[in-house]
Amino acid sequence: MSDQAQGGTLPQTLARPVGSLPERQFEYVGRLGPLYWLFVKNLLLSFITFGIYRFWGRTNIRRYIWSNTRFMGDAFEYTGKGSELFAGFLIVFGVFFVVSTAIQILVLGFGPESPVSAVLNIVFPIFIGYFVFVAQYAAQRYRLTRTVWRGLRGGMTGSAWRYGFYAFGVTLLTGLTLTLARPWARTRLIERRLSNSYFGDAKVSVAFSSRPLYPSYIVGLAAFAVGAAVAGYAIYAVLAETNLMERIVDLFSMSGGGFGESESSGSESGTVDKTSKQGSEEEIVKLVFLVLGVYVAAFIFLALFASICFAWFDAATARATAGNSTFQDLRFASSATGGQIAWLVTGNIVLILASFLLAYPIAVQRTIRFIATHCHVLGTLDVERLRQNTLVKSRTGEGLLEVFDPGMF
Amino acid sequence: METTSPSGIPPTRDRYLDGVTASSRPVRIALSGEALNILDPGGRTLAAWPVAALRVIDENRQNGSMILSVTDAEGARLVLYPSDERRELLAARSSLANWQRHRGLGELRTVAIWSGVVLAIAAAGYFGWRPLAGVIAAAVPQAWEERLGDTFRAAFTDSMRTCNGGAGLAALQTLVERIAPETLPGRAITVDVVRQGQPNALALPGSHVLVFEGLIAEADSPEMLAGVLAHEIAHLDLDHPTRRIVEQLGLGVIVTVAFGGSDVGNAGLLLATLSYSRESEAEADDRAIELLNDAGIRSDGLARFFRKIDGDRPSDVPDWLSTHPDLEARAAANPGSDAGESGLDDEAWTAVKTVCARTTDNG
């Protein structure tokens, strides 16, 4: 088989002329069977080991994916260890245990209404939000340092903590513009992460303008806003039509109102309501499930709808990122169209939800194939010039990311 | 899956990557004693790896090739296709041939050890957390407890209408003070009556008791009311409200961090909360009887009240799902005795029964 994979034709207009550079692709030869076996084994062993096996399970899945992905005929190697992921998790677990306990004690001590508690209640979510960005950077570094190809490993320079501040600020600005600045924010963050990334001793170089991303983003945002408004109205209409909320409030105030309130505020006496002629618990449960159902349906609809609305934005981002990146003498291109990305993502969501997560390996397989098919590498790598890097390896892996964003694999 | 690379390396040949550059050289191997010699096509030795330090990275199922590394040369790799030389090497060191089993066993051993550690910590936490929470709750400064309790009390009295029958409130206050033990820590107990239909009462941290209008309406006699009040005072005496807050805070933190706020975690938290609550209720029932006996009040009111309420409630909620264990079982566990006074004289009882009467309602 040649390096040219099936599918994925190159877009006519690249950011820079590529002339007649030779084209290569990543080749993914992994099969669904072994991936499923790893997934099921992960599931079962995680279940009987209180979730601890999942770090090793995830490592095995990555090792499978990496070793079945090839470039220039040579497979990648994932050298990460389950124990590294586990250690990272333990560190973050410890830090968060101490921080959130301290905050709870302070809130208890100063009283929930005091200004100190108010400040703590604002600071904690900010702290978490900041850490999500730190985690993204740290996780990318971890994966790069654990990826080996032809005996060379990847690496990443720059401080994850500083990236956290930068990304937090950029995201805050995006929020201030009612997300209109999102293409700009996305561009800056991709640039920041990518241009600090190494493979061997060569660095990715990328710089691009967010301008080409705006049309697809604005159209997507407008469509999404309309869809969200329609969904919001539909929820409102369903709830109003059936008087669901009022009925639930009625039922709760009629029976066992003290149950919910006392849960956190003190110990109840051993008395249970008697006035539940109309509001049996069964009826409450039924209504609560109905309301939950309405919200879950709306959420799934919005998730699917968003993945369609913003698919063209994602395609434009991939095109701009690939088209403006160079590595040594290599250039890149993305041939993924908005329609293809929408099909991939909505397909994955539907598969995973409809199978109650059991189709997860299929979604993984689809996604990697998609990336391999649509990522084009142009030019010839000077293998003699590409040397091992001396960048520092992170000692533990992804603890933060594990807590905040499980990710796909 | 062989590839013709630009440098013209023939397919299905052993190759050597030195871990310094990305170039891939065709090589052949020769085993000599404890060393594996890696030779270029011209017969020059590129590297000599100690066989004992070899490790298999992966095996390619499609073309049968094996990737090997050596401990002290990071990044250096040897790609070996099936050959007589490779068979000789694998025979010399069986751990290379069984690399997958070795790795799998090592992985399982590590995971098993850690599962044991986590199980031990979880067991220590489950059985040790409640006593520990009691110690922590006892160490919570009185001022914190009172401030927190005042906030909770205000949350109720601000959002619900209160009953203000002066004589009734005074009678309740007297009854509560009579039942409360001398040793009750902190300030004097406050009693509020809120307009809520359920026959319920709450003990809040910082010595506050809330009585629901429905409780007064449902109580047929002063000793029933005294029984429930004694139960709430027992909660205060046993420091339950503060303990429960500490217990829940600790559990909440662990569950949120461990499960990321997932449903599995919430279900576990709910179960833990329920089981703690049952123990607390049983403790408070026991203590309530003691308090009533010490105060010289009939102590059979609590059990009678439970039985009365139990008759009214729908029986379709399974016992294990309810925060409160089976009322009949609790009544049977603490029947109390009919020795002692009723707790309130007729005048006081009438005042209590009318504490929420409209004429005296300012709320």
Task: Detail the topology: elements first, then pairings.
The complex is a heterodimer of chains A (409) and B (363).
Chain A: E1 23-25, E2 27-28, H1 32-48, H2 53-67, E3 69-71, E4 74-78, H3 82-110, H4 115-145, E5 147-149, E6 152-156, H5 160-176, H6 182-194, E7 197-199, E8 202-206, H7 214-242, H8 244-254, H9 257-265, E9 267-268, H10 281-309, H11 311-323, E10 325-327, E11 330-334, H12 338-354, H13 360-374, E12 375-378, H14 399-404
Antiparallel strand pairs in A: 1-12, 2-3, 3-4, 4-5, 5-6, 6-7, 7-8, 8-10, 10-11, 11-12
Helix pairs in contact in A: 1-2, 1-13, 2-3, 3-4, 4-5, 5-6, 7-10, 7-11, 8-10, 10-12, 11-12, 12-13
Chain B: E1 15-17, E2 25-26, E3 28-32, E4 35-39, E5 45-50, E6 54-59, E7 66-70, E8 77-80, H1 84-92, H2 94-97, H3 99-139, H4 142-159, H5 166-179, E9 190-194, E10 201-204, E11 208-212, H6 213-218, H7 222-237, H8 240-259, H9 263-295, H10 301-312, H11 327-333, H12 346-353
Parallel strand pairs in B: 9-11
Antiparallel strand pairs in B: 1-2, 1-8, 3-4, 4-5, 6-7, 7-8, 10-11
Query: How many structurally independent domains of chain B?
Result: 2
Distance between the termini of chain A: 27 Å
Largest interface: A-B, 79 and 97 residues
- Radius of gyration from the alpha-carbon trace of chain B, in angstroms: 37 Å
Textual characterization of the structure:
The complex is a heterodimer of chains A (409) and B (363). By secondary structure, chain A is of the alpha+beta class. Chain A has a domain at 209-257 and 279-323 and 330-379. Helices cover 61% and strands 11% of the residues of chain A. In chain A, strands 1-12-11-10-8-7-6-5-4-3-2 form an eleven-stranded antiparallel beta sheet. In chain A, α2 crosses α3. Chain A is globular, with a radius of gyration of 25 Å. Chain B is α+β, with helices and mostly antiparallel strands and 363 residues long. Chain B has two domains: 15-93, Pleckstrin-homology domain (PH domain)/Phosphotyrosine-binding domain (PTB) (PH-domain like, Roll); 128-360, no CATH class. Chain B is built from twelve helices and eleven strands. A five-stranded antiparallel beta sheet of chain B has the order 2-1-8-7-6, with no helix packed on it. A three-stranded antiparallel beta sheet of chain B has the order 3-4-5, with helices on one face. In chain B, β10 (201-204) and β11 form a beta hairpin. The radius of gyration of chain B is 37 Å and the shape is rod-shaped. In chain B, 39% of the residues are buried. Mean pLDDT of chain B is 81; it is low at 1-12 and 317-321. At the A-B interface, α2, β4, α3, α9 and β9 of A face α3, α4, β10, β11 and α6 of B. β9 of chain A pairs antiparallel with β10 of chain B.
